Amino acid sequence: MNSNKLLIxxxxxxxxxxxxxGALVYLGNNRDxxxxxxxxxxxxxxxxxxxxxxxxxxGIAATIAAAATDIPQIPTETAVILPTNxxxxxxxxxxxxxxxxxxTNTPIPTDTPIPTNTAIPPTAxxxxxTNTPIPxxxxxxxxxxxQPGNQNGLIATYFGLQPGRSEFRPNGKIWYEWTVENxxxxxxxxxxxxxxxxxxxxxxNQWFQINYGGPNHQMPPExxxxxxxxxxxxxxxxxxxxxxxxDQFEACRDGQGTYHTLSNEVPITINP
Length: 272
Known about the structure:
Helix 1 (2-29) runs antiparallel to helix 2 (36-70). Among the domains are: 2-70; 154-270, Immunoglobulins (Immunoglobulin-like, Sandwich). By secondary structure, the protein is α+β, with helices and mostly antiparallel strands. The chain starts with a helix and ends with a strand. It is 25% helix and 25% strand.
């Protein structure tokens, strides 16, 4: 920009000198060399020319200063620094693969076989059920052996063998014990309480063992507990149970009376 201003100033200054030079030439041509007046005039003219030249020089300087001031400012070019590519020291970014649905194999349609007529096997003629006669209901079987019960207010609350004391052989002693309860609250008359052997579903009355009783004997309200034993002369499988007899004492004692069951049966085996 400064070089442009200098060139403009020089051009203006040259122009002004050219104008001043022209004026001086014009004035020189009109000067008279023969007369004193002319000399005086020349001196005056020289003085005037000097003054004019000074004024011209002063005007030229002012003009140059004004010209320098009035010259428009030409903007300078500003260098623009463009950003450079920054080198990344790290590994290059790996593009993320897009999820792509894998194509599935589309089954190739096949020819559908034409169904053939399947032979239906002949079915057997339905058998119409006949009315089967329903057998009449049978009586509920009675449990084998006599069943215990309350006999004139007397019941057996316990009957069992004494462990370790019995001899299960012919005529051996078979020990047992029993308890009879009187549920009446008073005396109950009976003739005999004892143990009845039973074999093959039949009472062996001849081997009945009386344990307690007598003619018109009384069972007290508190009942009675008693241990005793019996013997069986023959081998075999038996059951033993506690019974009571209310007939004549002699008939009860001799196995001729009616024996009412007080307890469950206990099985035994008499070995040879």
